[in-house]
Amino acid sequence: MQSFANKVVVVTGAASGIGRALAQQLSMQGANLALSDVNMNGLEETRSTLHGKGKVTLHTLDVSNRAAFEAYAEQVLEDHGQVDMIINNAGVALSETVERMTYEDMEWIVNINFWGVVYGTKTFLPLLKARPEAAIVNVSSIFGIIALPTQSAYNATKFAVRGFTESLRQELKNTNVFVTTVHPGGIKTNIVNNGRMKTSMTGDKSLEQQAKEFEKLARTTPAQAADVILNGVKGGKRRILIGPDARLMDRIQRIVPVKYSDVFAWFLKKMG
Questions:
Q1: CB of 75 within 8 A of CB of 59?
Q2: Taking the CA atoms of the chain, what radius of gyration do you get in angstroms?
Q3: Phi, psi of 86 (to 5 degrees)
Q4: pTM score, two decimals?
Q5: Torsion of CA 157, 159, 165, 168, to 10 degrees
Q6: pLDDT tens readout for residues 149-191
Q7: Any idea which residues carry the catalytic annotation?
């Protein structure tokens, strides 16, 4: 997909962060947008920052609700008449050890981070296949490539998104639908403040302390991330790594696929 002009693009989690930045850049590039989130006030703020001339619709959507997603797809088709790309961006964070984690917390993150991607993909796939060219962009994480302590649930969902999407890409190889996974490193968003951060990777710390730690590590802005994602789609990249930290972690994992945890344990010890 070389241009987003006059395309209809669905973006979940568009009330802030990467989702908002994607909406801003897509709007400037002439796209029509169907934006969703659980936070309608945030969506309204996103719309107020858009400067393109394309049509923009806003919908409150809980991506973990399959029936709501199916109804949303019907509404988007009614509003826009077509769908050319979906970016399954909505996601949440959970930091806790396996031993202390509740099943409720595990189900919460799996329903949003994994099932939300599955519902978005399956619900919109028939509409995408009806277009001359289309794209599915599923946002995983660098934590879909490497695993760290207290991130087991988050890792599980992001590894699952990666596996699901890579299989889907092979199934759609000879069709009009391009498929890619996105693996951001630390991005300056509110994911920590909006997550369930109970135990940090460097010990028991308050949410405020964890947010400050994350802010130090997050070197990439949402605008930079959106730029990399959209250029990756235009360039046909099947895996999009965002940020120098993501590229470094990916490289270390390739060099020492089993012992990379020792490298990161040493780094986390220095942080603590």
A1: yes
A2: 18
A3: -120, 135
A4: 0.90
A5: -100
A6: 899 999 999 999 999 999 999 999 999 999 999 999 877 666 6
A7: 154
